[in-house]
Amino acid sequence: MSRAAELWARFWDAEKERHLALPFRILFFGLLAFDCFSQISHLSRYGVGGFNVSHFPQLDGVLPAPQASWMLALVLLQVVLCILVACGVNLKRTLPLLTLSYGAAYFWSQLDSYQHHYLVVVLLLILAGAAWLSERPDGGLPGWSMRLVRVELAIVYFWTAVTKAEPQFLSGEVLKRLLSEEWAIAWVQSTAERLNQAPITVYGAFSWGALVLEGFLVLAMLFPERLRWPGLVLGLTLHISIEAIGFKIGAFSYLMVTLYVLLLPPALFAGFKTQKRALPGPPWGWWVGGAIAIAVTVASLPLPWSIGLGTAIGAVSLACIWGSCGLRVLAPSFAAFILLALNAGTDQMRDFYRYMGGDARARADTERAIYAYEQVISIDPAYFSGTVRLGDLYRASGRFDEAQDLYKRAETLEPDNPTPKERLRSLQYP
């Protein structure tokens, strides 16, 4: 064997890294479940006016415009599948299905065009293929798949660095335009004053630093044995800083932070073993019970078509979890619990109807706007803006008594806000 072939074989002989698959799975797919759930607020916009632009122009004349109901089904299914994957449930089924649903939702439309979606699709393709090629009896991801994910990250860093290697970016002008946090802008200003330099010089220095750092991270991802700790420190600092200074890039920074578990020493996780202990009771009871828990949870969400969505997603979940053993059979119930927690702890449902109402108002569809804002204040009775909006819609429709009641309610929500008082004074009865 030639020296080059030997080095190539040694690079992919990464079975010791299979221990990284467990923490990687839990962190990455747990966060991805939250990221998918956060898309719900935008889904009511799909299909509005029959307009759509896909990521592939050739498909625009072939595919129908996506509808809110289809996208809701895809996104809620993604949340469930992410949690099942995080728990290690039947990866040969759950990962390909997650890849298909995530890719379809992303490439079908450009309503949400954050670039991390593209990276996630690529990573899902890698991991779905690895699950199918894996010969491990416990269904876990092989060690070489962790190495392949790092290679993909190296490619991302390389091309990101290439895009920065142009005069406008290196001059600092791009960074200056992107910076939005006041504390960061003030810090650059004070640093420039201390160095007796123009602020643009400081922006330029940081731009050059970002280019060099991303070039270094290419090497850190490819050769972690030599560059593990500086790669961890510098890479995490980069992505935490990007989030801290307010760049509008969705969940990209958070997802990248979770991926840095792949630079940790595999020996840290060598003691983690696959759970084999069986639970009492007939396995099919746990499978069916978990699928029912998912179906009931989705059906109870305050969304249109929720009963049909719950039934469909529960059936798909049952097909995915069939054959699970040990503590993995509890994963569907855990998924149902996470869905309930996300619903109770976030504003996604409220914002789903808020965006629906805003779009309907812009298109003068008063009836649909009233329905949407009625749902808004039903989900969040203390939401001041939604209460005033619905009052305005009632007033425009001639429902003056109902408008008056809502303005009075808004007045109690924010006593110091003059808007409800102005609305009440201007309210005219026929």
Key structural traits:
single chain; 430 residues; mainly alpha; Serine Threonine Protein Phosphatase 5, Tetratricopeptide repeat; 21 helices; 69% helix; 0% strand
Written description of the protein model:
- The protein is built from 21 helices and no strands.
- By secondary structure, it is mostly helical.
- Among the domains are: 163-273, no CATH class; 348-426, Serine Threonine Protein Phosphatase 5, Tetratricopeptide repeat (Alpha Horseshoe), CATH 1.25.40.10.
- The longest helix has 24 residues, at 199-222.
- The relative contact order is 0.10.
- The model has no long low-confidence stretch (mean pLDDT 90).
**Backbone CA Rg:** 26 Å
* Series of secondary-structure elements, N-terminal to C-terminal: HHHHHHHHHHHHHHHHHHHHH
Q: How many strands appear in the DSSP assignment?
A: 0
| Low-confidence runs of at least 5 consecutive residues | none
The biggest beta sheet is recorded as: none
Shape: globular
The share of residues in helices is 55-70%
Short description:
This protein is mainly alpha-helical.
Task: List the topology elements.
Blueprint: H1 3-12, H2 21-37, H3 57-60, H4 68-86, H5 91-107, H6 116-133, H7 143-164, H8 167-170, H9 173-178, H10 182-195, H11 199-222, H12 224-244, H13 252-259, H14 283-300, H15 306-321, H16 331-345, H17 348-362, H18 366-379, H19 384-396, H20 400-413, H21 419-426
